[in-house]
Design goal:
alpha+beta, eight-stranded mixed β-sheet, 38% strand, Immunoglobulin-like, Rossmann fold, 806 residues, transmembrane helix
Length: 806
């Protein structure tokens, strides 16, 4: 009997001992492999594709969610969710677009960013996996130019290899076939790893409609695409056909001297076949020889479409030594054209700058302010009621023994009243503040950035939805949750924010938000709202006159003309309304807009009006650096109509929207007599003569820079509309020269060399023509005296005096 019982006990023990092993052997065993960017390359602050291969080597299936933390900075990011059902022995591939790449392991933190939750991310259990634990990619800064080539044979683009461009000491060439082998991006952010796309007789039209739309939206956001000459370009270019700068016709040939003259070299020794071409509307010639247009450009939004009249991959062009020099000349010309058009390179990441400009002011709600006079008045009345009035009433009634419960009851009632009155706006429903800024592009679209902050009236999760091509992310603000619940701070991004996507768009879940807490999300978007400012302004003898019409479908308040760091007030305009302008200027023309940096960081607004002013100042600061053309004046205005396509899903909220709408423009200028071109009217660039790198702008004063190298070239560019109207140049003044720090010389186009100038604070040149090129450029060479260490210095400014053609 006992033997039988002991046998049962031992058998049960053995079963219990091996049961976990049996259970484990039946569990899914996941192995992960990750690739990201284009050919493993990505740019800091730009989007890019991520591909994840998941292999189940276990004996049971996996059903749940894969969550990938896509960090966008050290304090921002979300967890992307991908539902997965993988049978035993099965492999699945997930490809998605990350709106902004960030190397979280750049300092060796080795943070895990890939997670699996069996049963789903909401209530499921996390399981471990093998293989890649995080997303890794080779990250490049903006000093590297990444070029992607669509071509049947990458050897046709061999002239692009090892190229050094102005301000780009390094280049990377990527074969687009490596991208297409995985999946072409179907969102504009997916093209973020590249700066330039070259199309060499490749059928863009064969891409899907969604992929083509993503590509053209990438160009609109600031990308450059170059089409080489082709016999079937109008068909091959697909969606870009209507944006091509040239119409090609019959074939002809061009002598090699045409290319040698443009590149200032001798690398071309054979004729090149070209197509005769005509310039399309709004296009600009980049390279021409006699009557032959060899390269032209056309702007789309903030980007550019470039087209050549010759094949960039066919021989003999692609194999001649001069092809390398021509590509360098063409790409540098395109960069300069982008800069002269107002697309200055960013010194900071706009998404990061939003955190400290728009984001800070957007997280302050009017309901934070409680009326001090009211609270003081209630306390005074409370004291009066409690002490003399209560005493008199109770004495007359001979009920003074009830004081013990009446006084605490009145105290509780007054406390509840003060609390309810001060928190009345926060108790009923959540509050959402939305601050955004949009540029009006030439094609009628509006592109911009937004920040949404929610002040909760309960704890829990809050969900926001947005359509495709609208990015969503979040950062952790200084949280009130430490007092009213759990804080948003967390080790992993998906612990505080989860992103779910579908065909319609995306949903961002802000997780575990505390009671009366503030949570913030931000992103980029584009709108198809048809409308613009209709601007008809003329400057004559320093007098600005004309009209501005609001063609938007919504009213615009506080419309102003942004010239320099000043705003000329116009007023409020309803849809279709027009305002007349008549203002006296201090300069001969309107100036390119400049940020005034007028924000008062750290100060809490005292009134609702102060808060509105603070939000507008934050928009001005952000817009001055990142929005609209940096080389033109702008029209700005504000609307309280919610235009950002982001919606709060699972809660009711009162929304307060503030949107700045900006549009660059070129005023008409009527000249007469003498005319002064002030430095504020010109564009200026600084570049190292050795490494083609820019100095670092320190900011105070505005033209103070840190120079890490010995010699720099400063280039001033007179606007094209002025060059053609000034018949005679009289004098050039060069001022703010710090001759104790550096020596300067000026480029003489006649002698083809630099001439040294006097060591003075300010000099005046009576002869201008030798120093002003036909393109309206003046070049100063700055050579520092102290060459052992870097230098911090102001740069010279120039002023030109001319006479208007009669």
């Amino acid at each position: 009997m006992w033997k039988k019982q002991w046998g049962i006990i031992i058998a049960m023990f053995i079963v219990c001992l091996f049961l976990p092993t049996v259970h484990a052997s039946a569990a899914p065993e996941l192995k992960v492999k990750v690739s990201a960017g284009f050919d493993g390359k990505a740019k800091y602050g730009k989007g890019g594709p991520i591909t994840v291969e998941v292999e189940n080597n276990g004996t049971s299936s996996f059903s749940g969610d894969m969550v990938i933390d896509t960090m966008q900075s050290y304090e921002s990011g979300v967890g992307e969710v991908f539902p997965l059902d993988i049978a035993a022995g099965e492999t699945k591939v997930v490809t998605f677009i990350n709106s902004k790449m960030f190397d979280f392991n750049m300092y060796g933190t080795n943070t895990k960013s890939i997670f699996f939750y069996e049963g789903g991310w909401k209530k499921g259990k996390e399981i471990e996996h093998k293989g890649s634990q995080t997303v890794t990619v080779a990250m490049y800064h903006d000093d590297t130019k990444i070029i992607t080539a669509f071509t049947d044979n990458i050897d046709r683009m061999s002239a692009l290899k090892g190229m050094q461009l102005s301000n780009y000491p390094n280049t990377q060439l990527i074969d687009a076939s490596k991208i297409a082998a995985v999946k072409l991006p179907d969102e504009s952010a997916g093209w973020g790893p590249t700066d330039v796309i070259i199309v060499d007789e490749y059928p863009i039209a064969d891409m899907s409609a969604v992929e083509q739309e993503a590509l053209v939206n990438w160009v609109r956001s600031g990308g450059v695409i170059i089409f080489g000459g082709s016999d079937h370009i109008s068909v091959e270019s697909g969606i870009f056909a209507e944006h091509l700068p040239l119409t090609l016709s019959a074939k002809t040939t061009v002598e090699p001297d045409a290319f040698n003259d443009w590149t200032q070299g001798e690398g071309f020794d054979k004729e090149v076949t070209i197509a005769q071409s005509t310039l399309n509307t709004d296009a600009k010639i980049l390279f021409a020889s006699d009557s032959n247009i060899l390269a032209a450009s056309k702007s789309i939004g903030k980007g550019m479409v470039v087209q050549t009249a010759f094949s960039v991959g066919d021989e003999p062009f692609s194999k001649m030594h001069g092809a390398h020099a021509l590509w360098k000349k063409l790409l540098n010309t395109v960069d300069q054209s982008m800069i002269s058009g107002g697309m200055m390179p960013y010194y900071n990441d706009p998404m990061e700058s939003m955190r400290w400009t728009i984001g800070n002011s957007n997280e302050i709600f009017p309901s934070f302010k409680v009326s001090a006079p009211l609270i003081f008045g209630v306390i005074i009345i409370y004291i009066i009621i409690i002490i003399p009035v209560l005493y008199i009433i109770l004495k007359r009634k001979d009920k003074r023994e009830h004081t013990w419960w009446i006084i605490p009851s009145i105290s509780i009632a007054v406390s509840i009243f003060i609390f309810a009155y001060g928190a009345r706006d926060r108790i009923g429903q959540a509050q959402v503040q939305q601050t955004s800024v949009f540029d009006v592009d030439k094609d009628g679209r509006m592109t911009g950035y937004f920040v949404d902050s929610i002040l909760t009236n309960k704890s829990g999760d809050f969900s926001f939805t947005a359509p495709r091509e609208t990015t969503l992310s979040t950062y952790t603000p200084y949280s009130m949750g430490m007092f009213f619940g759990s804080s948003n701070m967390g080790t992993n991004a998906h612990k505080r924010a989860i992103m779910e996507r579908d065909a319609a768009g995306s949903t961002l879940h802000l997780r575990d938000i505390g009671y009366w807490d503030v949570a913030t999300l931000y992103g980029q978007t584009s709108l198809d709202i048809e409308g613009s400012y209709d601007v008809d302004l003329t400057v004559k003898n320093k007098q600005l006159t004309g009209k501005i019409t609001n063609n938007f479908p919504f009213p615009v308040k506080d419309v102003a003309i942004w010239s320099g760091n000043k705003q000329i007030t116009v007023g409020d305009l309803g849809p279709g309304e027009t305002a007349n302008v008549n203002e006296t200027l201090k300069t001969s023309s309107l100036l390119p807009k400049r940020s005034g940096n007028s924000m008062n960081f750290g100060q809490m607004p005292a009134t609702t009006d102060d808060l509105m002013k603070m939000r507008k100042e934050s928009l001005l600061t952000f817009s001055g650096e990142f929005m609209s053309s940096q080389s033109k004046p702008a029209i700005i205005g504000y609307t309280d109509t919610p235009v950002v396509p982001v919606q709060l899903e699972n809660a009711k909220a009162v929304t307060d929207a503030l949107t700045m709408v900006t549009q660059s423009f070129t005023p008409k200028i009527e000249f007469s007599g003498n005319f002064t071109v002030d430095p504020e009217m010109m564009t200026m660039s600084l570049m190292s003569e050795i490494s083609d790198m820019q100095p670092h702008l320190t900011g105070y004063p505005a033209n103070m820079y840190y120079f890490s190298e010995d010699i720099y070239v400063q280039t001033w560019k007179v606007p094209d509309d002025l060059m053609g109207k000034l018949s005679k140049w009289k004098t050039m003044e060069v001022s703010k020269i710090q001759h104790q720090l550096y020596e300067i010389s000026i480029w003489n186009k006649v002698t083809n060399e630099y001439e040294k100038v006097e060591s003075k604070r300010k000099i005046t040149l009576d002869s201008v023509e030798p120093y002003l090129t036909d393109d309206g450029e003046v070049k100063l060479r700055i050579e520092f005296i102290n060459k052992q260490h870097g230098n911090e210095a102001q740069v010279p400014e120039i002023k030109l005096q001319g006479e208007v053609a009669k």
